[in-house]
Amino acid sequence: MTSAPRVRKAVIPAAGLGTRFLPATKAMPKEMLPVVDKPAIQYVVQEAVNAGLDDVLMITGRNKRALEDHFDRVPVTEQLLADKGDTERLAAVQLATDLGEIHYVRQGDPKGLGHAVLRAKTHVGNEPFAVLLGDDLIDERDPLLTTMIDVQAKTGGSVIALIEVEPEKISAYGCADMSVIDGEDYVRVNQLVEKPAVADAPSNLAVIGRYVLHPSVFEVLENTPPGRGNEIQLTDALQTLATRDGEGGGVYGVVFRGRRYDTGDKLSYLKAVVTLACESEDLGADLRAWLGEYTARLPK
Ligand code: G1P
Q1: What is the CATH number of the domain that holds 168?
Q2: Atom of ligand 1 at shortest distance to CA of 174?
């Protein structure tokens, strides 16, 4: 056991260009694409807040002003809704502002995920912190982040989230080789490779977009040369930490078997929207009925 401080801060990298969604993202950040009735980024901030992280730092870039606007007040709209007595919409609008304290720093050059996380160094300081990638939405009924925070406190190292994928899909992810730890529900990570070719992958365990990191990752990132795609890779820094003993060393994995909605490309995004809409209280029943009729009409 270590006496690691409790995790309080969440870092959300949101500087990506959204190229896969062009032209929808020509003038709008991909994080603002609606998932049913809220922008994708709001689910991620909500997840952080639900896990007790109310200090959120977003790493943004050019054309990302809509993110700041979304989490800010809109006095004119709010007054209008209040005057009309539309308390339901007013509450929905205010929810995004009331989530927690959100800070922003720009990434500057697009030098990769590791570089984006390094931009959080000053804000985070010398305490463990969470990183949430916006392309993965985790169902709020499956408390992944809370489990990871507990594992970080227990081990004093860094913690990643893993899912099992079909072997031929592994090259889209960071890939982990791990060992089971007797009596524990988390694993020890021995090796990490960023987006390996299928033939070179050490396993079919894929890294998904949730991390709880020891602050020593900053010093490692500062010394990590560009890797895959000529970008500074968080996976490479974690590989260094996985082989390091002592203070801040060691990487552990939580294998996630809950509900995850990938919004990283057009098809996954559409599936996420349809799944969540089908489960929503106000739209679900009507949408499911319509989908049933619609798919029955489709040519076989
Ligand atoms: C990043 C990480 C990768 C991880 C993935 C999860 O890649 O570099 O290791 O598996 O997120 O979503 P990206 O999808 O940003 O290219």
Answers
A1: 3.90.550.10
A2: 9
